[in-house]
Amino acid sequence: MKRWRSWSRRRRVLISLALAFVLLIPLPLSALAISLRIAYTGDATAQTRGQDAIWLGHAWVDGRKTAADITALADQLQGTGIRDLYVHTGPLEHDGTLPLAKVSPKARWFTDAIHQALPKLRVQAWLGDVLQPEKSPGMDLDDAAVRTRVTETSEQVLAQGFDGIHFDMEPVRSGSQGFLKLLDQVHAMTSARNVPLSVAAAQINPAPGLNGLLVGVSGQSKWWTKSYFGAVASRVEQIAVMSYDTWTPLESLYGGYVARQTKMALEVTPPNVDLLMGLPFYWEDNFSHRGSAETVQAAIRGAQLGLNKSTRQNFGLALYVDFAATPDHWSTYRDMWCDNLT
After folding, report:
1. Is the peptide bond before 249 cis (omega within 30 degrees of 0)?
2. Is the pLDDT of residue 51 over 70?
3. In the 8-state DSSP scheme, what is residue 202?
4. Rounded mean pLDDT of 67-74?
5. End-to-end CA distance of the chain
6. What is the dihedral of CA 267, 332, 48, 256, to 10 degrees?
7. Cβ–Cβ under 8 Å, residues 157 and 193
8. Coil, strand, or helix at residue 11?
9. What pLDDT, on the 0 to 100 scale, is given for residue 330?
10. Are the C-beta atoms of 214 and 288 separated by less than 8 Å?
11. What is the pLDDT of residues 100-155, one digit of tens each?
12. CB 242 within 8 A of CB 288
């Protein structure tokens, strides 16, 4: 009887959870889906302001690329709005150090070669690591010594000829004070050298309570609050939203999602800070990223709709990533976003 009562209680709990999911979760998500579909309607006419960027893989600094590859890259970038290159120079060690001579032995070769081939472009060192508490082992940004070593590493990387530092540290939990302290510390160093600090940013929470629900269920954090996004943006010269891997199943919903993200990011990004929206230059088909939904076309149209009639000039798209891009990705980007350059 005692065992039966225990099972009976567990069964009631399971039934209650199932009812909560059936009755409570689909309604808000259905409303969100409808609002995203509506956000994907209207005129989309915005064009590049010449403030775009592209993430480049590690092969450019580890010895796999040649002078011929530099020439091909320069040809690929002609006639686009790309101004910044984020070249993967890390990953950082969990303690904040980087054995640069071992990990990126051709960094100086790349910066010299690309400055000669494309002197108007900025070359930023893309540095990152996985973070605690979600990832263990991982970097602990609440540790002041780790933050100091990341700052020292960033300074050493700039000595290789880079024009700026670009951080992509994941996952940064919304509200993380360690991350803000790191940005303050590194920004003091980059400002003294008159070079930009930029950051790859998480998406903004698309619905109240959604990120809290995710943390409660899985322990993982995906989205930032608008206020935290603004706090990060106020500490850098450039912020690039990783507006992909959105869990959206349809192209129209993804485009509407990017439109919504663009509008929210515009609201909290200081006017003097460059805002870029990520463009999925790759194909995957899994739980977080449906390749048929997260298309280049939908992302560009979503950014255009989110930008709408804004006259903001320091806005762009950030293309992720060079080694997974196809000719169709490039042609869609050029046709939809760079037509005003031809």
Report:
1. no
2. yes
3. P
4. 98
5. 80
6. -10
7. no
8. helix
9. 98
10. no
11. 999 999 999 999 999 999 999 999 999 999 999 999 999 999 999 999 999 999 99
12. no
